[in-house]
Design goal:
Strands 1-2 form a two-stranded antiparallel sheet. It folds into 2 domains: 89 residues, no CATH class; 89 residues. Helices cover 67% and strands 3% of the residues. By secondary structure, the chain is mainly alpha-helical.
Length: 209
């Protein structure tokens, strides 16, 4: 099965709600609920700080004509708040990206929607092209050793009669692009993990209704 459960994982490196969980069930449900709340809070920070920055910068432009002495303070204040908005955007993106590999987090609409997007036709075609380009290069011994499974996966990704489990689509993307966490790319990880990951990903295909 692609994806992991949230038990025993740190979802929030910057908050106490992300302390490691040691039991499934209610503890996992609480972690997912906290994750949803954190995503919402970060989105609110984006909107509020972004709106405040826009107001401050607009006032800075206006002040440059009528009260020049206020222009610079307003400008720097607006830039500071804009920086906070950018930080909130990054933190929200980072949290969402980490939640994508937690199957329990798919109970959150935003996480599920992002995963379903990765399982969509456009992204599947992109993943298929990535696989084929790696096969053409043939400079990675792990790619060569698993060429049969990679070719089969590339074909399945573009097969319109097959649907792909969203968690497995996420796992496929990680396998092909994650420099640190992918055993296909990172030679310090066990080579045998490549084949097991490919079998897990391909197990996520099923015929559409």
């Amino acid at each position: 099965m692609c994806g992991k459960t949230a038990a025993g994982l740190r979802l929030f490196p910057d908050a106490s709600a992300g302390d490691a969980l040691h039991a499934p069930g209610a503890m996992v449900a609480r972690a997912v609920e906290d994750a949803g709340r954190r995503l919402h809070d970060l989105q609110r920070e984006e909107w509020e700080d972004g709106a405040l920055a826009a107001v401050a910068l607009t006032l800075a432009i206006a002040a440059s004509a009528v009260r020049p002495e206020l222009a610079l303070p307003l400008f720097f204040g607006g830039m500071f708040v804009a920086g906070r908005a950018v930080l909130a955007i990054w933190r929200r993106w980072d949290l969402l990206d980490r939640l994508l590999v937690e199957r329990d987090a798919y109970a959150l609409r935003e996480v599920r929607g992002r995963a379903e997007h990765e399982a969509g036709t456009v992204n599947r075609r992109r993943l298929s092209r990535t696989i084929r380009s790696r096969l053409e290069l043939e400079d990675n011994p792990r790619v060569v050793a698993n060429a049969d499974l990679l070719r089969a996966l590339a074909d399945e990704l573009v097969d319109p009669l097959l649907e792909l489990d969203p968690a497995c689509a996420v796992a496929c993307g990680r396998l092909l692009t994650d420099d640190l966490g992918s055993p296909l790319i990172n030679s310090e990880l066990p080579a045998e993990d490549v084949r097991s990951r490919l079998f897990q990903i391909r197990s996520g295909f099923h015929s559409g209704d």
